[in-house]
């Protein structure tokens, strides 16, 4: 049996050496599973993202519109799309979103008389406008939440129904934006910065 022989190879290139770069490698290692929140938002299944969006604002058309325009190049583009979709809510979409809202939560140590006052103000508001009162509280200090909610209800009771629909839609838009930031980025927001309202 003949012994296999190696064929001679052609001339080989000299070994290439990289200059000494302390702390650096020629090709950075890729870290698996380190998607940014935006990358995850852009690549997650549509039903998953739609579920997150519906927890931010209970409007199917709003959520579908945002999902349909993925991928977003940056957080600003996503938030702008969310704002635009919220501005375009029709009366039926707004009613759908408002039906899923609940009263703002009061601090745990709020006294009983405050709950009674809030219940009475909310009942008057709901009787006038046919939906729950919504308000964006943003960075309102905990100690001022009750006053801000009561003041908001009382001042908005003077609105006519069309004017209040516009105000409620704006409050929902702001709530949705904050909830979207919290859902996708947590309380830190983008790049460690606190999210804005």
Structure, described:
The chain is mostly helical and 197 residues long. The protein has one domain (37-192): UraD-like, CATH 1.10.3330.10. Helices cover 53% and strands 0% of the residues. It has helices at 37-43, 46-56, 60-68, 75-87, 91-99, 112-129, 145-156, 161-185.
What is the name of the CATH topology? UraD-like
| Number of DSSP helical runs | 8
Q: Considering DSSP H and I runs of 4 or more, what fraction of the residues is helical? A: 40-55%
Rg from C-alpha positions? Answer: 27 Å
CATH class: Mainly Alpha
Number of domains: 1
Short description:
With 197 residues, the protein is mainly α. It has helices at residues 37-43, 46-56, 60-68, 75-87, 91-99, 112-129, 145-156, 161-185.
Descriptive tags:
UraD-like; globular; 197 residues; mainly alpha; 53% helix
Task: Set down the secondary structure blueprint.
Blueprint: H1 37-43, H2 46-56, H3 60-68, H4 75-87, H5 91-99, H6 112-129, H7 145-156, H8 161-185
Helix pairs in contact: 2-3, 2-8, 3-4, 4-8, 6-7
């Amino acid at each position: 049996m003949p012994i296999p022989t190696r064929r001679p190879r052609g001339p080989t290139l000299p070994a290439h050496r990289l200059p000494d770069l302390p702390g650096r490698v020629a090709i950075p290692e890729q870290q698996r599973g380190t998607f940014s929140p935006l990358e995850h938002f852009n690549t997650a299944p549509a039903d998953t993202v739609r579920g997150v969006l519906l927890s931010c604002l209970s409007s199917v058309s709003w959520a579908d519109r945002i999902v349909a325009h993925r991928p977003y190049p940056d957080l600003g583009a996503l938030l702008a799309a969310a704002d635009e979709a919220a501005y375009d809510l029709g009366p039926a979409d707004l009613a759908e979103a408002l039906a899923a809202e609940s009263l703002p939560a009061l601090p745990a140590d709020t006294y009983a008389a405050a709950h009674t006052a809030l219940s009475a103000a909310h009942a008057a508001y709901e009787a006038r406008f046919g939906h729950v009162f919504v308000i964006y509280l943003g960075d309102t200090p905990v100690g001022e939440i009750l006053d801000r909610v009561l003041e908001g209800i009382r001042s908005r009771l003077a609105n006519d129904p069309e004017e209040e629909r516009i105000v409620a839609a704006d409050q929902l838009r702001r709530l949705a934006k904050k909830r979207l930031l919290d859902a996708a980025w947590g309380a830190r927001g983008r790049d460690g910065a606190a999210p804005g309202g």
